[in-house]
């Protein structure tokens, strides 16, 4: 190996090796390279002899080093010609000091379609693996909601029709009604599969078995018992006989009463009435917020007396709003970490449970035509959306998109005629949103990340605008919920053994954990070397990453596993 310093200070690496190769044999030669640019580069290898020559050209994708990060700076612009017709909001954008050179990019997006950013990113709403039942639903449920919306508003095109049906069918193949998956997941999949029946073929016997299995766990008082392990620690208040679990199951049952197979060993309508009576009798004793908003949503969607509906809406408004501000889920926020604590962007991600709470409240207000209250919740939700169009995790993303879809179905501004001006320190960007292009997602890529940003708007309509920022940092600056350490064992020239140890930093134990292990270029993991590890449920290879699913990680027991 020779390293030559050129006159301009740049390094030129040369390497020489000699191999004598007999006929029908092969040899391996190592040539270390250091790419100077990110992106796709051509690598050409040639061989020559006195008798012949050959060459091969391949492409190498060079990725930036460091930890990928992204965030959005969104604004929700609602201009009513009868009240206000102008809007201004400014932001200061701060970034960490250890950004990897060449890894940063940004874009400005503006649209009159509230679901526009989510529809644009339907295939990648979340940047996370999808190897278990609930995560697989992220591939299906949003597509069902969007397909239903576009069909009802006559916006579906042949291209969108084929694209959405593909992902819906893919979701039905990946999801399954495994009893070990638990009550909540079974009820949720039942709901989505039933809604998909009008789009693709779904075997009615699959739905029937799921309904009968749920009904077999109903108690005499109308409540239900949980079955299986609940991986989401924030949903563990949904225990046996709880209103929250009963409301969740009842939601699935009420949506399946129109099926033609509702005969058999169980009286589904009788079971629904018993569950409804249980929720009405328990309503005054519901203290946790998720059970309250779920119960409210379910009961408001069923025939009730006007006195009961007024009571539910009064309680719901009191728990959602205080002094004209949203307070639902904003108190007692222990057991959480700040994703951007070290460098302080001023951007704080909401907890998944807060997004679910707000989404079910939005569904309740939409069901009763309370659009003014709904607009407040819709604005808050759009501010929690990530640059891919999703939210934090699977369940909150699915419920939030359902709530936003339902709201858009029932509410539309009187018209669109808005001029949006986005100012940065380098140049302004102009966007026009009118009746002809309100459903178009307009975007403008930036070669820099602005430090100062101002959104200005005049006219009338309802518009979502956002700055999306992507970059790699040399280190993970977030305050993690886990302590993770790696130990390199048996390090050889062509192989090494890696041990990964994990402990939960918060009190108690986590829900299901997915660890993502990046594999260095030129190496391949031997998945069989992991062996049988207590709590390790699944291992998947995804490109140059290895996804490892672990049941739970506690604060007092170190979770360890090794890989060659």
UniProtKB/TrEMBL annotation:
Domain Alpha-macroglobulin-like TED: 109-171, 185-407
InterPro entries associated with the record: A-macroglobulin_rcpt-bd, A-macroglobulin_rcpt-bd_sf, A2M/Complement_sys, Alpha-macroglob_thiol-ester_cl, Alpha-macroglobulin_TED, Ig-like_fold, MacrogloblnA2_CS, Terpenoid_cyclase/PrenylTrfase
Keywords, in A-Z order: Disulfide bond, Signal, Thioester bond
Domain Alpha-macroglobulin receptor-binding: 509-555
PROSITE patterns to which the protein is assigned, alphabetical: ALPHA_2_MACROGLOBULIN
GO cellular component: extracellular space
PANTHER family: CD109 ANTIGEN, MACROGLOBULIN / COMPLEMENT
Identification of the protein by name: Alpha-macroglobulin receptor-binding domain-containing protein
């Amino acid at each position: 190996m020779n390293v030559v310093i050129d006159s301009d200070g740049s390094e030129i690496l040369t390497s020489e090796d000699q191999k004598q190769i007999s006929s029908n044999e092969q040899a391996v030669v190592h040539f270390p390279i250091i790419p100077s640019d990110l992106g796709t580069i051509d690598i050409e290898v040639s061989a020559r002899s006195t008798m012949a020559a050959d060459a091969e050209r391949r492409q190498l994708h060079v990725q930036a080093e460091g930890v990928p990060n992204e965030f959005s700076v969104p604004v929700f612009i609602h201009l009513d010609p009868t009240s206000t017709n102008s809007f201004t909001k400014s932001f200061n954008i701060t970034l960490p000091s250890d950004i990897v050179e060449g890894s940063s990019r940004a874009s400005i997006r503006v649209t009159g379609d509230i679901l526009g950013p989510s529809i644009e990113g339907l295939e990648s709403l979340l940047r996370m693996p999808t190897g278990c039942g609930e995560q697989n639903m992220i591939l299906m449920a949003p597509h069902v909601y969007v397909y239903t919306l576009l069909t009802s508003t006559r916006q579906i095109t042949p291209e969108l029709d084929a694209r959405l049906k593909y992902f819906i069918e893919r979701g039905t193949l990946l999801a399954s009604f495994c009893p070990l998956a638990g009550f909540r997941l079974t009820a949720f999949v039942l709901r989505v599969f039933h809604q998909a029946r009008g789009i693709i073929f779904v075997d009615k016997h699959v739905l029937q078995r799921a309904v009968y299995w749920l009904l077999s766990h109903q108690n005499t008082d109308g409540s239900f018992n949980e079955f299986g392990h609940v991986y989401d620690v924030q949903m563990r208040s949904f225990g046996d006989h709880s209103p929250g679990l009963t409301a969740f199951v009842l939601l699935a049952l009420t949506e399946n009463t129109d099926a033609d197979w509702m005969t058999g060993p169980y009286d589904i309508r009788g079971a629904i009435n018993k569950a409804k009576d249980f929720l009405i009798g328990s309503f005054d004793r519901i203290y946790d917020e998720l059970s309250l908003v779920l119960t409210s949503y379910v009961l408001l969607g069923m025939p009730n007396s006007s006195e009961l509906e007024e009571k539910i809406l009064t309680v719901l408004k009191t728990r959602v709003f205080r002094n004209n501000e949203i307070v639902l889920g904003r108190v007692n926020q222990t057991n959480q970490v700040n994703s951007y604590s070290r460098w302080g962007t001023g951007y704080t991600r909401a907890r998944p449970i807060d997004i679910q709470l707000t989404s079910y409240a939005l569904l309740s207000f939409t069901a009763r035509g309370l659009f003014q209250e709904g607009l407040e919740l819709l604005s808050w939700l759009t501010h929690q959306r990530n640059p891919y169009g999703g939210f934090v995790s699977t369940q909150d993303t699915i419920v939030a998109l359902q709530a936003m879809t339902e709201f858009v179905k029932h509410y539309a501004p009187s018209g669109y005629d808005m001029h949006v001006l986005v100012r940065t320190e380098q140049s302004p960007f102009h966007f026009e949103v009118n009746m002809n292009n309100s459903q178009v997602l307009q975007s403008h890529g930036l070669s820099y990340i602005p430090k100062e940003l101002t959104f200005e708007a005049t006219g009338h309509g309802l518009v979502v605008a956002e700055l999306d920022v992507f970059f790699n940092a040399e280190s993970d600056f977030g305050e993690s919920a886990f302590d993770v350490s790696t130990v390199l064992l048996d390090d050889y020239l062509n192989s090494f053994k890696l041990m990964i140890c994990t402990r939960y930093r918060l009190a108690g134990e986590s829900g299901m954990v997915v660890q993502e292990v990046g594999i260095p270029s030129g190496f391949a993991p031997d998945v069989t070397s992991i062996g049988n590890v207590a709590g390790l449920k699944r291992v998947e290879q995804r490109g140059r990453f290895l996804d490892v699913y672990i049941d739970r990680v506690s604060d007092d027991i170190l979770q360890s596993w090794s890989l060659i």
